[in-house]
Write a structure and sequence with these properties.
By secondary structure, the protein is an alpha/beta fold. It has helices at residues 19-31, 45-60, 119-122, 150-160, 167-180, 191-201, 207-215, 220-230, 248-254, 264-269, 300-305, 324-339, and strands at residues 34-39, 64-67, 98-102, 124-129, 140-143, 234-236, 241-246, 276-283, 287-294, 310-311, 315-320. It folds into 2 domains: 11-215, Alpha-Beta Complex (inorganic pyrophosphatase (n-terminal core)), CATH 3.90.1640; 221-338, Diaminopimelate Epimerase, Chain A, domain 1 (Roll). It contains 12 helices and 11 strands. Strands 6-7-8-9-11-10 form a 6-stranded mixed beta sheet. Strands 2-1-3-4-5 form a 5-stranded parallel beta sheet. A hairpin with a 4-residue loop joins strand 6 (234-236) and strand 7 (241-246). It is globular, with a radius of gyration of 20 Å. The structure holds adenosine monophosphate and manganese (II) ion (MN) (2 copies). Adenosine monophosphate is lined by residues 40, 42, 109, 131, 291, 309-312, 315-319.
Length: 340
């Protein structure tokens, strides 16, 4: 079996709203039959919504799309998978002509179990993303850091190629946009975000019905876990830094699943006077996942890069191979220096 490394084309990265490239995406789609759709580890609403938007668009084009996710979908976005179409693994002997990689820009964020470098399985690779860090993965890279969500780019690609935005596509894109903007609150929200949202609502979807799935259907275990996380809240640097910790034991004891900690970090940032909020969470394999959120001009993507992480200016992540207390010491002392 031929195995070739995933190629990088940094020169192609950060192409902004380039309609020619949007049409190139469809030139590749037209030539393909079997198409895989994949996205990042610890999936969120943006990558899930972007995947379903593409899935339904490809179905309209009579292609054979497969959404592949070895990890479960986020609990609050599982409603998008009404037809139970998401698969957890590549089938025996299965081959794709094309693979679309969504909402990630570096190989290490591809889910375990998806061996993208195996070109004979995954075919031509198109990467669509909006992170500011990472130079992209694949043969054709569209990386637009000014997009509030990857789904905004997906939406533009579908519109450029005259795909009718039906309710299913609209619901998927809307889910992605509201989750990545925190309900149109974060600094990534632009007038274009609202313009797209307005067009989506004109497709017959209900903002409340989607919000109810995402924000008003909390599993009891998640709120119990939130109370544990909040009880660890600590402050540093004249209360400009607020952080919380969650150990695997605590997560397991509440009956919560790992995806349920998404958004907890926002409580730390939301406190008046706090400039950077963090959540340190133990994950399997002796690792610690650090979620970082900042206000205004504090660029936490650059900070995260120093520790092998990345993300966006105001929302970034790091994975450390250290115990949770060492991780806290290391990151908090570096952050105290960083924000000066
Ligand atoms: P999270 O705290 O996991 O929600 O991540 C915040 C943002 O940073 C998301 O946009 C992630 O895609 C990105 N991010 C998280 N972890 C990493 C990492 N280890 N490397 C690069 N980017 C990351
Ligand atoms: Mn994402
Ligand atoms: Mn995103």
């Amino acid at each position: 079996m031929q195995t070739v490394s995933v190629r990088f084309f940094p020169g192609l990265a950060k192409k902004m709203k380039n309609e020619k490239i949007y049409r190139d995406v469809f030139d590749h789609i037209k030539k393909a039959e079997n198409i895989a759709i994949i996205f990042h580890r610890s999936p969120d609403g943006d990558c899930t919504g972007s995947a379903f938007a593409f899935y339904y668009a490809l179905k309209k084009l009579k292609k054979r799309p497969v959404i592949l996710s070895p990890e479960p979908l986020p609990f609050n976005c599982a409603f998008l998978d009404r037809g139970k179409v998401v698969r957890s693994a590549v089938g025996e002997g299965e081959r794709f002509d094309l693979t679309i990689v969504l909402d990630l820009s570096e190989p290490k964020r591809i889910m375990r179990g998806i061996e993208l470098p195996k070109r004979d399985i995954f075919g031509f690779v198109i990467n669509i993303d909006h992170h500011i860090t990472g130079s992209g993965v694949g043969d054709l890279i569209i990386q637009e850091p000014d997009a509030a969500a990857t789904a905004e780019i997906v939406y533009r690609i579908l519109k450029t190629n005259a795909i009718e935005i039906d309710r299913e596509i609209a619901e998927a894109v809307y889910t992605a946009i509201i989750t990545d903007t925190g309900g149109f609150r974060y600094s990534n929200t632009t007038s274009e975000t609202f313009a797209i949202a307005s067009e989506l609502l004109n497709c017959g979807i209900s903002s409340w019905e989607i919000s109810r799935e995402i924000y008003e259907s909390e599993p009891k275990a998640r709120i119990l876990l939130l109370s544990k996380a909040l009880s660890t809240l600590s402050f540093e640097k004249e209360d400009k830094i607020a952080y919380m910790k969650l150990t695997l034991d605590v997560i397991r004891n509440t009956g919560a699943t790992d995806d349920m900690t998404d958004q907890f970090v926002n409580y730390a940032r939301s406190i008046k006077g706090v400039e950077v909020g963090l959540l340190f969470r133990e994950v399997s394999g002796g690792k610690v996942k650090v979620s970082i959120r900042s206000k205004d001009d504090i660029d936490v993507a650059s900070f995260a890069l120093r520790f092998g992480g990345g993300g966006h200016r105001n929302a970034a992540g790091i994975v450390l191979q250290e115990n949770i207390d060492e991780s806290v010491n290391k990151i908090i002392s570096a952050l105290k220096e960083y924000i000066k």
